[in-house]
Design goal:
single chain; about 375 residues; alpha/beta; Rossmann fold; eight-stranded mixed beta sheet
């Protein structure tokens, strides 16, 4: 089977969040399973730069085709990706769209010409957080009908199933498949203490947040939990790109910007707790990556991320905006390492059993084959 993944961002682009990481892990697993995999993406990279990738190249057996953006600034500031080429649909059996409200999906869907279309919105379907009026207009003018007309729409958690049903997606076209977590990335972690030494963080515990810094991610609440030395001698390390808000500053808080590669893994290896107090988070890769690196997690309780962590028995939940509750959960994990280590072990088993890329790729193969049936 020959699949085209459509995503506005793909490695080495990490500043745009978790979708590039998800697509990469899935595509690699599909190649390993013998599938022919192509990715159509853009040259987006971060606020100032483009990726610099060639128009066509191969990465781990994945054929990657890059369309240049008409404006890098519009992509970063408004998530308005303006491709300058058409989707490469030659010799493709299934089109797999990732995320929602971008022109690559709209173009690929309308050029499908009878090929089955699968979409994985990954939490981007509801009109939440920023630019809600623009999202309404976008849905009327462009791809608002795609989730309701795609052959299959994938929810990564029960919470996203509810989102899809509320948006009018027919129940018989919704499948639940979790996101893959790249187990191989965590087989050889940097030595513990490497990040701490490189950043001069001393000997106190490290609480890590990795991800975009935007209003719904709860970073401001996390910083507030550290105010007035309430969690001293712990240090909060915030690693991610700021989008739609500035990074709050406070004593005991270190902002690194986006971390990539081994430096990112070094932070996870040194973290004593990974905190992810987001709202409307249908999955959340970072908490599971933290567990693989040995760190217990605190996550928001209002959506799919908390649902999955409870299912795994692998962390503590905090209500979004409850600074006292967030502080208390972090303190508990820092102080009770027996409980923390038990959560980590349960989390690692859960990831291996349910989120391994080979397992997720097999689920998608079955989904593609079902979508291809007349």
């Amino acid at each position: 089977m020959r699949v085209l993944h459509v995503t506005p961002c793909f490695p080495p682009t990490w500043a745009y969040g978790g979708v590039p990481r998800v697509v990469y892990a899935l595509a690699r697993a599909q190649v390993a399973a013998g599938m022919q995999v192509r990715v159509w993406t853009t040259d987006a990279f971060d606020a100032e730069r483009r990726s610099g990738q060639p128009d066509r190249y191969e990465l781990d057996g994945i054929e990657v085709i890059v369309t240049r953006l008409a404006s890098n600034r519009l992509a970063w500031q408004h998530q308005l990706y303006l491709p300058t080429s058409r989707p490469p649909l030659d010799n493709i059996d299934v089109i797999h769209l990732h995320a929602h409200r971008h022109l690559l999906n709209w173009l690929a869907f309308r050029a499908a010409a009878g090929r089955p279309v699968v979409q994985t919105p990954n939490g981007t379907l509801p009109r939440i957080e920023r630019k809600q009026g623009i999202k309404v207009l976008w849905d009327k003018c462009f791809d608002g009908d795609v989730p309701r007309r795609a052959d299959r729409v994938v929810a990564v958690s029960k919470a996203e199933v509810r989102q899809l049903l509320a948006a009018g997606v027919a129940a018989d076209r919704i499948a639940r498949v979790p996101n893959p977590v790249d187990l191989g990335e965590f087989e050889s972690l940097p030595p513990r203490g490497a990040f701490r030494a490189a950043r001069g963080l001393g000997g106190g515990p490290i609480v890590a947040y990795l991800g975009q810094v935007s209003p719904r991610k709860g970073v401001d609440h996390l910083v507030a939990a550290f105010a007035h030395g309430a969690l001293a001698p712990a240090t909060l390390v915030v690693a991610g790109a700021a989008r739609g808000m500035s990074v709050p500053s406070a004593p005991g808080v270190v902002f690194t910007g986006t971390l990539e590669g081994r430096e990112r893994l070094a932070l996870l290896a040194d973290a004593d707790v990974v905190a992810y107090p987001s709202s409307d988070e249908v999955f959340g890769l970072v908490p599971f990556e933290g567990l693989l690196a040995g760190a217990p997690v605190v996550v928001g309780d209002d959506c799919g991320c908390g649902e999955l962590i409870v299912e795994a028995g692998a962390g503590l939940l905090s209500r979004h905006g409850d600074v006292d509750g967030l502080r208390s959960a972090i303190r508990r994990l820092l102080e009770d390492r027996v409980v923390a280590e038990a959560m980590v072990e349960r989390g690692r088993r859960y990831v291996a059993q349910h989120l391994a890329p080979a397992r997720v790729a097999a689920d998608y193969t079955a989904l593609y084959e079902d979508a291809c049936r007349p």
